[in-house]
Structure formats: structure tokens, C-alpha cells
Amino acid sequence: MHRRLIAPGALAVSLLLTVPASAADYKPGAPGIGDPYYPSYGNGGYDVSHYTLRLKYQPVTDTLEGTATLLARTTQDLSRFNLDFLLDVSEVRVGGAKASFATSGEHELEITPKTPLAKGTPVTIVVRYRGVPSSKQAYGFTNWHRTPDGGVAANEPEAAWWWFPSNDHPLDKATYDVSVAVPDGTQAISNGTLRSTSSRAGWTRYTWRSDKPQATYLATLAVGRFDITTGRTESGIPVINAYSKDLGDNAGAARASVERTGEVAEWLTGYFGPYPYNALGGYVPNVSTGYALETQTRPFYSPRQFAGGSNVSVVVHELAHQWYGDLVSVAGWKDIWINEGFARYAQWLWSEHEGEGTAQELADHVYASHAADDPFWKVRPGDPGPEDLFDIAVYDRGALALQVLRNEVGDRAFFTILKGWPAKYAYGNATVGDFQEYAEQVSGRSLAGLFDTWLFKPSKPGTPAARGAGV
Ligand code: ARG
Ligand code: ZN
To answer: Which of 95, 194, 218, 233 could disulfide-link to 296, CB 3.0 to 4.6 Å?
Structure first.
């Protein structure tokens, strides 16, 4: 009835103000954000600042349903725009009004709002959906890991498509409220702090908040039957860890490693500066996949990471990413070295700390153990290509390059760079070129040759200069 409050004349005037003078100027947002490795990932025309996901997951049928509310701002005059998503959408609203929608490509949801959106407008997007995530594939794969008692969304560079609609690229970071109802006796684990839990009619709802900018691939959801441990770091940051009740033989080694999270994070602050978030932890679900992932504040660890026994090194790696990868994220996926080279180097520093071999010894080993004709040297860590994004060379040759840099600029400049970089690009994005520029600025040296040789040449470099050469 409030419609009567607006005089017909006033309505006409407001329509004149909101409808574009020339609707032809309003264009569809691009179906990709412009990443050369993955042209369809992310989208153009808007920027998301916040996701609120209110979901319900039934492990028996692998059914995820609920509502995503995105707070965004347009960055161009938009006639329509895309989100990246795979589940079945039943309704979309933009600014409260029902919008029409269609799917296209491998993972695009095309949304046409009732009225076009002017550049710079705040816009609320509500997507109601439901689906069986494990039944959805894009490019022939699924990154939803179903387990006997639930499921897990965690992978890189793509994970969000299977559980929430998003602008799926690290360039568009946002804050998250993730609330998931699961059958009593089951837990839902996500990023950040646990704001509340409540039970009703056989369902328990877990509500998590990640309140610092977070890339979409760093948002995670795990549902299953977990043992949960809580604690605090020495400086008071709350730690929540979760271990599947179904880890079998690996349970002891998993706990003995992940329970070191607080200690390792505090140790890393000595190299990288203050821990950038207000929550910490790790979770180990009963998945059969093998990798680990630096999901923000609470990394994901496959049980297989602990099959060989305790593995604090992987905890060091994933926590190092909280600075190198999560706080400072890649501007494009070609910049993966600014994540993996540094997370590997942190493992070398930990090895040195534990008396298990110095960073120099580990660098020498990487150099010596790959002959000149080893395909290892074909991979260019500074621009590896999408096929080799996580090739071992990105990690090991990437960390070797850092040891070479350390020897070139000396320890003082090197450790100033290591600590200064996360502060300089905090909560943002950067490129390999930005790192070179920053290292040159701090060290006062030209490093173009060093970067080219160690990160960009598809061949084994000549013997690296001895330690201390550049001090
Ligand atoms: N950033 C992750 C790590 O270094 C890599 C994840 C790789 N994912 C994969 N499917 N191989 O721990
Ligand atoms: Zn890594």
C-alpha cells in the first residue's frame, strides 16, 4: 500500500532519473575478469565487498541449498552481469527486484536486472539455489570432495563454483559470513571466527565470520563429523582446529602437526610481521585427495599430508601463505610464484630453525639434484602457464630464486624485504614485477638479470654466486 504514498508525477520523475538517457550505453559485464591464464574466471563490471551465505547441507544426499547475498558496487554502466556458479538457481534478485537469469559457458550465471545499473551504484544481489555439488562438473572436473559423512570445498584456483555464486578471482576480495545448518552430530567448518551455533529440530547451524578481505578460492566449507580443539596463541589469537573422526592411522600425526599451528604462526611473525587476521586454525577432513590449501585463517590439510608421520612443515607452508597469498594475493594467476616460492622458502627457514638443514643447503640440493636436461628447468616459475601452475618447479626453483636473491642483496636487505612486502600490499594484490620493483627499492640494486635468470628462463642457470657475494 505504500505505493500510494508516491504521487504518479513523482514516480515519473524518479523513472526519468534512473533510466539511462541512452540505454545503448549500458553494456553487459565481461564474462571474465581478464586473467590471461583463465579468461572465463571472475567477471567484469562490478566489485563484491561482502558475501553472506545462509545454507543447509544434507550429507546423506549431498544436497546444498540456501541463499547467497552479495553486496557489490558497479564499475561500469551495466545492462547485465555474470557470476561464476554451478548449482541450480531458482531465483535472483537485484536491488530487491526479481531479475532474469540464464546459464552459459562452463560456469557462468548471467543475470539481467529489471533496470540497468549505473556505474558506481551499490547493489545487493540475492541468489537462491540448491544442488548436489558432487554432480556438477566444469571442464570435466569437480572440486567438491564428498566424504562418507559430508563434503569439502577447497581447491585452487577454483573452489567457489560448487558452493556459492561469486566473482571468482583473487582480484575481487570480500568479507564473508558463512552460516550452514547440518544434521545434529555433524559440524560445518569455515573461515574465521565461530560467531554462533544453534540447534533446532535435528539441525545445528554453525555461523562463521571472516572479516578481512578474502579471495574466493580461500573461502572454504567442510561438513562432517569432526573433533574440535580450541586454544589461543601466545599473543591471544583464538585457534580452532577440526579433525575428522575418521582419520584412521593418520589421526595422531595429523593432530601432532596441526596442533602446532599457534606456535608456528607466532614464529612466522618474526619473518613476515604481525599475523593479519583475528582467527587461526586448521582442519583435516576425511578426503582422499592429497594436497593442502591455505584457506584463509584455517588451512585445509588432506590426511595424506600426514601419512608419512608428523609434518609440521606443511603447517609452516600453509600458514606462510596467510601472508604470502592471502594477505597479499596474486593479481593474476601467472603471479603464483609470489605465493608458492615464499611458502616453500618459509619451510626452508623452518628446517633451519629445527636443525634439519639450512636454507642454503636446501637450495644447493634443489640446484644439484636437477641436471641441466631435467624438464624441471623448462618451467618458468615467474610465468609457468596454467598447466604448470603447481609444478614442483614453481615451489623449489621458486624458493631457490629467493636464496639467490638473499645472497645477492645480503641478509639485512633480504629479511627487510620479506617483512616489508606483506605490509606494503596488505589486503590487496600484487605481481611478480611488483616484487622485483620492491626488492630493488629496498636493496638499492638492479635485479632484472637475477629475476630473468632464476624465474623466467626455461633453462638451468649457471652455478649461483656463493653466499655473501652481495653483502
Ligand atoms: N596452494 C596449495 C599449496 O601449495 C596448492 C594447491 C594445489 N592444488 C592442487 N589441486 N594441486 O599448498
Ligand atoms: Zn602453497
So the answer is: 218
- Non-local (6+) Cβ contacts of 9 within 8 A are none
Whether 208 and 192 have beta carbons less than 8 Å apart is answered as yes
| Closest to 261 (Cα-Cα) out of 288, 279, 286 | 279
> How far apart are alpha carbons 35 and 332 in whole angstroms?
6
**292 vs 247, 289, 295, 303, 464, CA distance in Å?**
15, 9, 9, 9, 31
Q: Which residues contact 418 (CB under 8 A, 6 or more apart)?
A: 271, 272, 342
- As a whole number of angstroms, the distance between CA 291 and CA 65 comes to 27
With the most atoms of ligand 1 within 8 angstroms of its CB, the residue from 283, 289, 291 to mutate is 291
pLDDT for 424-439, tens place per residue? Answer: 999 999 999 999 999 9
For the stretch 312-340, pLDDT in tens is 999 999 999 999 999 999 999 999 999 99
For 180-224, give the DSSP string: EEEETT-EEE-SSEEEEEEEETTEEEEEEEEEEEE-GGG--EEEE
Grid coordinates belonging to 436 = 622485483
Which pTM does this prediction carry?
Answer: 0.94
d(CA 212, CA 278): 9
CA of 409 to the centre of ligand 1 (A): 30
Ligand 1 neighbours by CB, cut-off 6 Å: 155-156, 291-294, 317-318, 340, 390
* Closest listed residue to residue 234, CA positions, set 257, 271, 262: 262
Q: At residue 161, what are phi and psi to the nearest 5 degrees?
A: -50, -30
- State the Cα–Cα distance between residues 230 and 191, nearest whole angstrom: 14
Nearest alpha-carbon partner for 258 in 276, 282, 237, 279 = 282
